[in-house]
From TrEMBL:
It comes from Abyssalbus ytuae. Residues 46-152 form the DUF6265 domain. This is DUF6265 family protein. Residues 1-22 form the signal peptide. Keywords: Signal.
Amino acid sequence: MKPTKSFLSVFILLLISQLCFSQFKNTLKYTPETPPVKASLNDILWIQGHWRGEAFGGLTEEIWAPPLGNSMMFSFKLVNDNVVSFYEVGFIKQIGETLILKLKHFDGSLKGWEKKDETIDFKLVSVEPGKIYFDQLTFEKISKNEINVYVVISHDDGSHEEVKFNYKRYQ
């Protein structure tokens, strides 16, 4: 059977799009073909705590609460030159036999970036011991007192980059 031009065109387009989104080392991309992943909040208890690190030329702080009400809530802030650049508030929620991460951004005055009823949602892609992969966002346990968070950031020019947040437990 000889492949048609349209088949080859679709195949090449799919290959290019896959290469564009799999160019990053530490994150995975959710696709409609991604099979459902079973996980519970118990699989990610190691992210709870008070964490600090550096990114985007400033200091970062992330606080993860223990599970309550089928979710783990978090807050994040970035501080540049002793001024808050932005905040994030969100959760990882148990939905049936899987998890979803949802968040909202706020500027330093708590003015929301997203519309009132909108959230940024990250579907679960894979779970491994010490790693949890959401769509273009990964948590990695280095030790009891250190974690990495990798996230794919989109820029205005259409480019993307994977950013690493290295956090140490803050006492």
